[in-house]
Write a structure and sequence with these properties.
homodimer; mainly alpha; DNA-binding; 0% strand
DNA sequence: TCTTGCAGAACGAATGATCGTTCGTAAATC
DNA sequence: GATTTACGAACGATCATTCGTTCTGCAAGA
């Protein structure tokens, strides 16, 4: 099989850790739990592959932050019209949530357990992302394409509207990702589009 | 002052614990932290007033669950028309989030640390609430008042759309609770109302 | 008014459990 | 034979909680 790019143990540990952190929360998840899940008898064995527990959280948080940064970067440059941009951003969120359910849950809910230098770095990235999203919304409001409303309320309502997918979605549902995208975009955007 | 209904120490402990659990998360919050916040030198002193750490979490979770149960109960009985019912439910969520910011955060994010008998009880209450909310949405879809879409997608998108308020809202914002209500209802409901 | 007794509240030490991590060594892999 | 990986014991820290004691405020009795 050409597709047998064997995963390194390190990678397995990171993936299993994401699942563990999602299931129990970062603080409640122990390194002994993690050792069990990857088939090691001792928690100490993990340290042949990783530096620390927090290193795992750092990687998960920063990797996901990068996904969103790169996503919005591309949308700003290649998509024209604020309506299409917001639609693309919604799709970006939904697709990441469906593709990387576990790591996006950790990214969403466990970032606060990052310690000082990394916490600030993470918050700066998030602030930057929200700012760029907000600017698109404000532009749409100014142009009359979006409903006149507080832009922060619009921003956070949108950002949170998908935050159940990574928790709820399973591939064997009768509902396809495309159908979810369509329904959510319709629900959100026909409230955002000005039709006075 | 007639308004001096002195809070019992127990009540102070519960309120301060909610704040602490919100700030650091249930697992990361220690009883020593809590003792500090209520002005006790020793964590052991807390046990003159409370039975256990989890007792606090149980009360916070069940109290808030009751608020939502009672809220939807009243709406089902007194509000006519699915459109008005959904509007009332949105207002219910926003008002609780603004009134009890700290405890609603704990209720939302920390319930999973409840242990066996209480966890199941909590999940049953939540399932019941979601079911009743979903039935209203389905009725609206059937009657043609709401957009034709998957009712679970609609339910969870609505339920999560406000989940930033308890984190973001501060009384000194230039934005009044009424303005937030208006904006969110407009944003969400004009996407839900069928206008073909 | 002063003393006494009592109960609730706070303390401080200690318990057993669990945590993340280190270290020296042994097994496994190449 | 060299290097990576796993082990097992151990470390120090911190956790929630228990226990016996001390402190505090207040009411009853003298």
């Amino acid at each position: 099989m050409a597709s047998t790019l064997k995963k390194s143990k390190k990678q397995i540990i990171f993936e299993e850790a994401a699942r563990l952190f999602k299931d129990k929360g970062y603080k409640a998840a122990s390194m002994r739990d993690l050792a069990d899940r990857v088939g090691l008898e001792q928690a100490s064995s993990l340290y042949s592959h990783i530096r620390s527990k927090e290193e795992i959280l750092q990687k998960i948080c920063l990797d996901n932050a990068s996904k969103f940064s790169e996503g919005i970067q591309e949308i700003e440059q290649s998509v024209v019209g604020v309506g299409a941009q917001v639609r693309a951003l919604i799709r970006l969120h939904i697709r990441i949530a469906i593709k990387d359910t576990t790591s996006v849950t950790v990214f969403n809910d466990e970032w606060r357990h990052l310690s000082p230098p990394y916490l600030e770095e993470f918050l700066a990235l998030r602030h930057d992302y929200e700012d760029r999203f907000r600017k698109i919304i404000e532009k749409g409001i100014d142009q009359g394409e979006f409903r006149g409303m507080n832009s922060a309320v619009a921003l956070y309502t949108l950002l949170n509207a998908f935050r159940w997918i990574h928790y709820w979605y399973k591939p064997d549902r009768e509902l396809s990702p495309e159908a979810i995208e369509k329904d959510i975009i319709n629900l959100l955007l026909n409230g955002l589009a000005n039709k006075s």
